[in-house]
From TrEMBL:
It comes from Lottiidibacillus patelloidae. Residues 78-149 form the PAS domain. InterPro entries: Biofilm_reg_signaling (IPR052155), EAL_dom (IPR001633), EAL_sf (IPR035919), GGDEF_dom (IPR000160), Nucleotide_cyclase (IPR029787), PAC (IPR001610), PAS (IPR000014), PAS-assoc_C (IPR000700). Keywords: Coiled coil, Membrane, Transmembrane, Transmembrane helix. The keyword Coiled coil applies. Residues 501-554 form the EAL domain. The keyword Coiled coil applies. The chain crosses the membrane at residues 7-26. Residues 54-88 form a coiled coil. Residues 276-326 form the PAC domain. GO terms for biological process: regulation of DNA-templated transcription. PROSITE patterns: EAL, GGDEF, PAC, PAS. SMART domains: GGDEF (SM00267), PAC (SM00086), PAS (SM00091). This is Diguanylate cyclase.
Length: 554
């Protein structure tokens, strides 16, 4: 607490009254009265109060001075802090006057603009560094800021002093700089982000272009409804416009027999399971159809979980595969199954017969004297004859459900897997012989053929295709040796006879090479006269293994 003012006021009253008393009493000789002392004492009270007021004012002034000094110090600290913040800020900070001229630029700004010193920047307009395309937008935003109109952040393309392009995201605000109205431009270097966005956008454009030009149909669907398709999908579906598919069900495109399958696959995909591509028949609005291989994945599209399906038109591929399949499994002349498909079918039939306790039959047909027709009329006529024979076999009602194949040359094999009796199969063989015995007209000429048929029964005569065909072949040759135009069932005796015949033929070839054959002459004697009337030349075979057997047995 201060008493200087009060003490000064009291001292002043006492000094004033002392002088008064001095002149009044001593110079003029007046006597000091009690009332004058009382007055002096009374004057001390207002003097004390006035002094008190002075002390309070003095104390307040001192406090204000201290407060002012403190505020000035804080301001200086704040300014230093602000200046340091602005100078060392990682952001682009520029102050420019109402005419758009730069009056201040921090170090980051100079660095970003690739300026070596302030003189290259100060006094210039911010528009000098901004892409000319954005000048009008820049001027408008400056005017809005001067008029206190809120300005949203914006991205600028900036061209540096060294002609390098950078991107900044900026805001502008009105401030007071050295007592004058000014604008502060604060920006963030977003070049890397922008370049990343540009790269991503380019990738998206490339992806979009790839998707749109892709020959693979792409379909995005959710809850069984199509929400996006690419041009290839429109082509596969046989429609012209997106609205023909968008909003419709994916199952609308699929053949009715596969709807349950595709619904099951969609459910699995939605549950996060992977599924393998599957072939579908796509039904088009005009009634035509194609084949497509479709696969799907769960993904995110425009912020929602969807299924992304890829559809590949495999119609041509399927046709090519069918052609390859035909070449691999069908005879090019008669279009009947060939030897390869016969083997697969016969193996399956054998397995079925064994597993189900049934029996089946392999009929081996060989056309009699077919070589004579080929040699006489030419191979083209022989081929035409084989086609006619094929037509006859396929037209037989008895063979309607049976497997007919061309084994090669003039040989056909029929597989009967309907558990028929031996007598029923014998009747079928007789009917085949009867139908093929009738004349066939080729190029206007009647041609007569017959067929020899060998029959093996499975699984009795063999449990694999090779054995059954071999045994049916043995039976067929037996039928030929019996006069052709006949049929024979295979038996073990036929097999043994066939083995014996083949053994003799093999030994005979060896005999010729080793000169084991020689002639013997046997005289012919007339009994009545007992005279030799001639001789018989006999071919003998000197073979210990064959025991000098006569060639007649061959």
């Amino acid at each position: 607490m201060h008493y200087k003012g009060r003490l000064t006021a009291v001292a002043f009253i006492l000094s004033f009254r002392g002088i008064w008393f001095y002149y009044y009493n001593f110079l003029y000789g007046h006597t000091l009265h009690f009332s004058e002392v009382t007055i002096t004492i009374l004057l001390l009270f207002p003097a004390w109060w006035i002094g008190k007021q002075f002390d309070q004012v003095s104390e307040l002034k001192q406090k204000l001075e201290l407060r002012k000094e403190k505020l000035l110090k804080e301001i200086r600290v704040s300014e230093n802090r602000y200046n340091n913040f602005v100078e060392k800020s990682p952001n682009f900070v520029v102050i420019y006057d109402t005419e758009g001229k730069i009056t201040y630029a921090n170090k980051k700004t100079l660095s970003l603009l690739e300026a070596e010193n302030e003189s290259e920047v100060l006094g210039k307009s911010m528009l000098d560094f901004i892409d000319p395309i954005q000048h009008d937008e820049g001027r408008k935003r400056l005017n809005d800021a001067l008029q206190h109109i809120p300005v949203e952040p914006i991205e600028y393309k900036v061209i540096t002093l060294k002609k390098r392009i950078i991107y900044i995201e900026s805001v502008v605000m009105q401030i007071t700089d050295e007592g004058k109205q000014a604008l502060m431009f604060v920006a963030l270097d977003v070049t890397k982000r922008k370049e990343a966005e540009m790269l991503r956008n380019q990738q998206e454009r490339n992806y979009e272009s790839l998707v749109k030009t892709s020959p693979i149909g792409i379909i995005v669907h959710k809850n069984e409804k199509i929400i996006w398709v690419n041009p290839a999908a429109l082509k596969i579906a046989g429609v012209q416009h997106e609205h023909d598919l968008i909003g419709t069900s994916l199952t609308k495109l699929i053949e009715p027999t596969k709807i349950d399958i595709i619904n099951e696959r969609i459910q699995k995909i939605e549950q996060g399971h992977q599924v393998k591509p599957i072939e579908y028949k796509i039904i088009r609005p005009d009634g035509s159809f194609i084949y497509a291989e479709i696969n799907g994945y769960k993904t995110n599209f425009q912020g929602q979980d969807v299924i992304l399906s890829f559809a590949v038109d495999i119609t041509e591929r399927k046709k090519q595969l069918e052609k390859i399949n035909d070449l691999a499994y069908y005879d090019t002349l008669t279009s009947l199954p060939n030897r390869n498909l016969l083997t697969r079918h016969l193996e399956s039939a054998i397995t079925d017969a064994i597993e189900n306790g049934k029996k089946g039959y392999t009929l081996f047909l060989d056309l009699d004297r077919f070589k004579n027709i080929n040699d006489t009329y030419g191979h083209s006529s022989g081929d035409e004859l084989l086609k006619k024979v094929t037509e006859k076999l396929k037209s037989m009602s008895l063979l309607k459900n049976e497997f007919i194949s061309r084994y090669g040359g003039d040989e056909f094999i029929i597989v009967i897997n309907s558990n028929k009796s031996i007598s029923e199969v014998a009747f079928i063989a007789e009917e085949i012989s009867s139908i093929l015995r009738k004349p066939v007209f080729v190029r206007g000429l009647p041609m007569y053929i017959s067929t020899s048929i060998g029959i093996s029964i499975f699984p009795r005569d063999g449990q694999d295709s090779d054995t059954l065909i071999k045994n049916a072949d043995i039976a067929m040759y037996t039928a030929k040796e019996s006069g052709r135009d006949n049929y024979k069932f295979y038996s073990n005796n036929l097999y043994e006879e066939n083995v014996r015949r083949m053994e003799i033929e093999r030994e005979l070839r060896t005999a010729i090479e080793k000169k084991q054959l020689y002639l013997q002459y046997q005289p012919k004697v007339e009994i009545k006269t007992n005279k030799v009337i001639g001789s018989e030349a006999l071919l003998r075979w000197n073979n210990k293994k064959m025991d000098r057997r006569r060639l007649a047995r061959c």
